[in-house]
Amino acid sequence: MASEKSELRIYNSLNGEKEIFKPLKEGFVGFYVCGPTVYSFVHLGNCRTFISFDMVYRYLKHLGFKVRYVRNITDAGHLENDAEEGEDKIAKKARLEELEPMEIVQQYTINFHETLSKFNNLPPSIEPTATGHIIEQIEMVKKIIDNGLAYESNGSVYFDVEKYNKDNYYGELSKRKIEDLISGTRSLDGQNEKKSPLDFALWKNAKPEHIMKWPSPWSIGFPGWHLECSAMSTKYLGEQFDIHGGGMDLKFPHHECEIAQGTASTGKKPVRYWMHANMLTLNGKKMSKSTGNTLLPDELFSGENDVLEKGYDPIVVRFFMMQAHYRSTLDFSSEALNAAEKGFSRLMEGLDLLKTLTTSESSSQDVNSLIDSFYAAMNDDFNTPILIAKLFDAVKYIQNVKNGTATISKQDKKILEQKINEFTFDILGLKKINEGKSSNLETVMELVLQMRQKAREEKDWDTADAIRDKLNEAKITVKDDKEGVTWKAE
Fold first, then answer.
1. Final residue in a domain of this structure, among 433, 457, 477
2. Integer Rg of the chain from CA
3. Overall pTM surpassing 0.85 (yes/no)
4. Average pLDDT of every residue of the chain
């Protein structure tokens, strides 16, 4: 399937079109995703973004690319309301909880990793932190000043947006015009330091009470939030790299500022393909802490919440997210999650059934064409809902073979089993929930089924039926067919 590599098309937010993906260096992909600001528990909307880009990472690797996936941890410089003034989000949380800022960072970084692990996300290749790259950020500010596109004011350094816009287009990603941005600004505290209200901070002079601060040529202060991603992506992926991902909400101003900073410091546009994942809603309404219409991952898994009727396994939730395209909004509701749960079980049962199929001389269906449809879906801007529909076409075929209304050859069975497993587990990132069955349960079930089989051989139907009924009460289903006995625990 090496030829599939050249056929991948990615929707590029920069021009609003799907483009054939051609990496800067053949066989290699530089991939950056904006990570979390670790001052609170990671919420489901963030999880969706990271799960979406985990799927992208998995598919690029499947196509044979060597991928360097960089996802940062924001542990400094992110002020309240994404503004130029106010308190650092992490420092504020530390003050409220009477902890050191780095205790807050550690606590919520661990939560972030644990949550994504439950969703079966792969770790990135590199996970740099803002505080670990203060030197690189200072050096980038120096370059932008040297290139005449930033200025120092009262110990802070600001990016000169209007000067940059003379030779570049500030607003190219979000399709905003600088004239409209200027007319839409209002006076804020501290803006008297700036030449224009559009100018954004590259370095901020810290007030005496500010906890997280570092020495620089301009003041003891801290970097701007936008700067860290530019500095770290450049350090690990170069002045230009292939893909930058993030949530739709980061397009402006965060990603717009990244483009400006990268271009101002190196003279090159930093990113070739910009990708943005869309948001989640809950029961048809925007997720919001202020309205109480919100849900944390652990509340979703446990069922301890007031908005859904029960808890759902993280892998079922991942499958549910994959049923929507990463660029479309996705609504969480009990009805939708229940349907996803049933669909997931049907897919897993189909994969188990495939292993047991009796083969024939030839196949009644073109298996290679079916597999090509898997690739066609993913090559069309990672269209996971179409892929899942095609996987269910395969499950229907598998069931027909089992029922005797279709046939499959030994060779086709082998290639279908390989590819359907690759797309389900390696690319969509699903895994069998019941792989959590303990070896103890396996051992007990083996003994119980042996006892039931012995009762049947001795025509002791009462005992055989009693064993089956008791297992049903324990939500363990036993099926008898010509292939033998199988069981499944709910």
1. 433
2. 27
3. yes
4. 92
